[in-house]
Amino acid sequence: MSDFAREKAAQLVKKRASLSSLGSHEVRAKESAYKAKDSTSTVSYIDEHGHHDDIPRPPVQMENTYQLDSAGHPEGRAGQLPPGREVVKARVKDLMIPRYKIIVVISIGQLADHSMQMSSRCLWDAANDTCASHTFKNSSLFAVANVYGVYFE
Amino acid sequence: MDDFQIGEDTAFVVDEVSTIVKEAVEGAIGGNAYQHNRVNQWTNNVVEQCLTQLSKLGKPFKYIVTCIIMQKNGAGLQTACSCFWDNTTDGSCTVRWENKSMYCIVSVFGLAI
After folding, report:
1. pLDDT per residue as tens digits for the range A9-53
2. What is residue A49's predicted lDDT score, i.e. its pLDDT?
3. What is the pLDDT of residues B23-62, one digit of tens each?
């Protein structure tokens, strides 16, 4: 029974996708593309094979603190320049805000004669989770950085 | 067997999420050409539709959905993300969609509660 469960767990773990501390040029490990009538779409994710041990580790469990009055929100952090995904993430991590998961999203584009719209919406606990955003522009490029902080209950 | 079933119900399944995203994008902007006065509504529709369908999965996750719609004009765009989370339980999925007049990039991040 345990071998069967372990096999299934291994298969399940392979399906999971996670992206952490990787450059964007590495996000090409798996792509599946399909063509519709006049549009194409591709899906990207990465299987981190190196991180999956043969012996499944028990997940680290954090107890509920029931502290909903969490101090420290990652607001204002996205205002730090220069933009750079790892720099932003490192600085946010320096804050050492406990029990928060951090997601940093950076978009850098060429300033040309085109228009663009960026939106994001989140399904979370609005009392404890929040986001911060900053835009940078010079004569040839623009950069938008979003930092999301999600409280881990 | 019980452990496996619990795992399946609480895992971030990329295929499932990407299907939801593709359907949301096709429904919101499929067959349309880029129009500046409608793009705001389109991005809202895409993210709202994604979130609605994701919440219907009923999994114990918090979701962050981002959508970028860019007019095709020869300009370049680079997006990247970096996440400080629990690798074993959390996941993300990015779908790139395009037609003749625009690109649409949708990213979904799922964080286990």
Report:
1. 445 444 443 334 333 433 333 445 555 556 777 776 644 444 444
2. 41
3. 999 999 988 999 989 999 999 999 999 999 999 999 999 9
Asked if B73's CB is within 8 angstroms of A121's CB, the reply is: no
State the alpha helices, DSSP H only, in chain A.
2-15, 85-94
Q: How far apart are CA A80 and CA A94, in angstroms?
A: 13
- Asked if A83 and A108 touch (Cβ cutoff 8 Å), the reply is yes
Question: What is residue B113's three-state secondary structure?
Answer: coil
B18, B97, B113 ranked by CB distance to A153: nearest: B113
- Of the candidates A89, A67, A85, the one whose C-alpha atom is nearest the C-alpha of residue A149 is A89
Q: Mutate which of A108, A123, A130, A137 to test chain B, going by most B C-beta atoms within 10 A?
A: A123
* Nearest residue, CB atoms, B36 vs list A12, A115, A119: A115
Q: ipTM of this model?
A: 0.78
B108 class by beta-carbon count within 10 Å (0-12 exposed, 13-18 middle, 19+ buried): buried
Query: Is the peptide bond between B60 and the residue preceding it cis, with omega within 30 degrees of 0?
Result: no
Q: Which residue has the tokens 């209950």?
A: A153
